[in-house]
Amino acid sequence: MTAGRGIRRNLLFLHCHDLGRFLGTYGVATVSTPNLDALAARSAVFDHAFATAPQCSPARASLFTGTYPQRNGVLGLTHSPFDWDLADPSSHLASRLKAEGFRTHLIGVHHESRVLEEDVVAQRLGFDRVESTGVGGTRADRSGAVVADRAIDALTRYAGESEPFYLQVGFFEPHRAPDPRDSPGVVGFLGDGIDPDSSRGHTVPGYLRDDDGARAEIAELQGAVRYLDEHVGRVLDALEKLGLGDETIVVFTTDHGLALPRAKCTLYDSGLEVALILHVPGTDAWTGVRVDGLVSHLDVRPTLLELLGLRPDDDSDGSSLVPVVESAAAAHRHVFAQLTYHDYYSPRRSARSDRFKLIVNFDNAPNPMDASQSWLRRSSPHDLARGGIRTSRLVELYDLEADPGEEVDVAATPENATVRDELAAAMLAWMRDVGDPLTSQGPRSPHHAAAVQFLTTAGA
């Protein structure tokens, strides 16, 4: 059976904050995620999927428009006081599907365009209805339990209708959130209904020092992910019980990597890696398979349009993954990512192949990059013990085969000069193609000028 083309299906799009690949199905043995692991077992799981940006709004804008932040306009956070916005709000997936006859409904996190009143968001993005927590939603309204309740109510209504539906459900967890149990200045992963979980031990990522502070944070993170999994499971159970499972494509993903030091807001794999699970019912090719090639969040939208039997977008930066899954076609040779603004201006770009990662830093911000300066954390990168926080190097190159943790910078080694320059040429071509402001505007500092000079020389 050809996977979904020409068949009108529903689409349930589940996403969450700050998860990376911290799930059992991705090899994290100490976290309890039975519902997502079960979904993965009957789906296509992408083992090397990456976001286009390591922070919330730019990553989500790419996910739902299929275009890079430099093109869709969301180079930073979309809530006040940052107020970045889609250059064309109608480029959202909801607008496209509504025009194709789908009922469209957003529940939970909305962070991919300007955070405004719900009716305004609905009108701008193409939703029939929005029940959004935004960023400023109350603690209770944004909880996974409430989001799941609302999603189940929506599915119950759709079960009695004939039109196909697009239901976009955004979970807040496992984002950090203030909690009365936190120590002064600390923002951990706890929340209503969330307790630390170390029942299976701790999985401390290799880039962190494995100490008491890291283990305390990981136990909280594991509790938050367990809570997320519980409420995702409730939604998936309702989908089946309502008789909608056989005609509903299910996507589960997250925006970017874990909210830990040297992860979120960095261009290392730890900041860009994402879980990506795609369930296409009734298709052998999409059931219980693992896809190893490089894929991008940009590919999700064109893939879904093909699976739904709809014409492709004219301006997508991604490619449908249908040939990759069904015909073993090659995935991407390179995936690209960018950071421009989070809480502050910190422009960086990366190009990744199967084996190597090139990062070019256009400013002198400290390295390792940090997600925010507004809270304290109890974990720290273990490389801080080797000299503390330092100014970012102009160019970083990592051999991911020999050094998957991206700790040994080989940019200056002569034997890697060719691959470094090849990645620089690919990066420069990509930046020019998407109209990147870092190349189309004048240098803003001597460091910026040196970064542009490196790319231009290496890519010549």
Automatic annotation (TrEMBL):
InterPro entries the UniProt entry points to: Alkaline_phosphatase_core_sf, Sulfatase_N
Pfam families: Sulfatase
CDD domains per UniProt: SGSH (cd16027)
Annotated ranges, domain Sulfatase N-terminal: 21-309
Database matches in Gene3D superfamilies: Alkaline Phosphatase, subunit A
Keywords linked to the UniProt accession: Hydrolase, Metal-binding
Protein name: Sulfatase
Native organism: Microbacterium salsuginis
